[in-house]
UniProtKB/TrEMBL annotation:
PANTHER family: BLL7424 PROTEIN, DUF1501 DOMAIN-CONTAINING PROTEIN. Coiled coil: none annotated. Transmembrane segments: none annotated. Pfam families: DUF1501. This is Sulfatase.
Amino acid sequence: MTNPENLSVQGRRLLDRRSFLGTAGLSTAGLGLASLLQSDGLLASDVGTAGGKTPIRPSIDPNNPYLPRKAHFEAPAKQVLVIFCPGAVSHVDTFDYKPALTKLHGQKPPGIPAVTFEGPTGNIAKPFWDFKPRGESGKMVSDLLPHLAEQVDDFCFLHSLNTDTSAHPQGENFLNTGFTMEGFPSFGSWVTYALGTENQELPSFVAINDPRGLARSGKNNFGNGFLPAAFQGTDFNAKNPPNNLHRPSGLSPAADHATVDLLQRLNAKHLELYPGDANLAGRIASYELAGKMQTSVPDAMDLSGETAATLKAYGVEGGSALRGEYAKNCLLARRLIEKGVRVVQLFNGSDPAGGNGITNWDSHSNIAKTHAMQAEIMDQPTAAMIADMRQRGLLENTLVVWATEFGRMPFLQSNGTGRDHNPDAFTCFLTGAGVKKGFSYGESDEFGFKAAVNPTSVYDFNASLLHLMGLDHERLTFYHNGLERRLTNVHGSVIHDVMA
């Protein structure tokens, strides 16, 4: 028998029959009261999101996590293509026309900071390329991007974007995951977690990396964070297909099929032993998808059926080798959308160990040369891909997003040839399903230095993208470490003014 002297005061009270019965009686009464309150609808509601709304967590079959699921509400966009330009494209040299820069060229008016991200500042600099009115809307776009400029009547520009950081890794993280820190799910992962995909032979989310490699934040840009691993982006491009697609030469088709059949039977028996193990089911589903990709991915990557006119329009030949490789990536992106992949993220630029405008848009020096080099790679293939998708009717159900992590300053750095990072104003554009055409939302100030009219945060931007996909950014959550996590954290408002 336990010695009462070795028990705490609370423990000794439990040995007292009267105290034990009294505690049990009160506990039973509490349970009864809770039941009565529940039946009368007087209990507090379930835990809500930061906005007070009830979370919506998708019902996912662990045996097939990629099955298509219904959106929160009817929306025009069923798929999304994100064109991401790492390095920070200069808005004042592309889409955000600021005549004041020409007027004050070479001057240093009051209000310009003495030091920015990379050091001392120089003087105001006019755009390095001339701006001209384009299309019926007369939208002013620079000569740096002549092919995209031809389509401005179909684009919806957001000119008052601003972000929380001026560093590239954190900026990429923030735009693509909603947080400056690593370890959070990417936009594509949230969408596929919520909606699954229509094509069960291909990944639900594909990241097409630049021919030069990964962006500065690497796989975090398309990672799943704390969401189930099934929803991470599968990364490959036209030059580098996924590994192990082809059957080894020493293995016959019959032996290969027999091996697959055996694995399926073994996996099914193993799953029967652990019917509630969602992680195990998800891993099995991932391996089964990998098996299907051995035939579906080569078919998607086979450009031999593309016409000579299409290859010419995309710029596969006739330009730099990098433009040709990026053009093939654009063709791959269109083909994946055409085959029903839910989310495609297409990168134009890489930066695993720097860049300085050579491998991406980060033009701290000689912006006239480095931005021109990146534009030669990006402009024609991107414009051709968008036009091709429109001609094929794909934009009726696909949202296209062109984005960069922040902008660049209206004044030069002290070296006199480059522009520093600008987190306070930058431009992105949308086109396709659900957005207005030939429309501009928000304005930066007269210099393009800070967002001035309808300032738009990255939270607002991502909230709007989810809304266009039929998802409520305040209710799409995943319970993690005691918090109802979401892409927009506890912030963000949908920009209804940009929606058709």
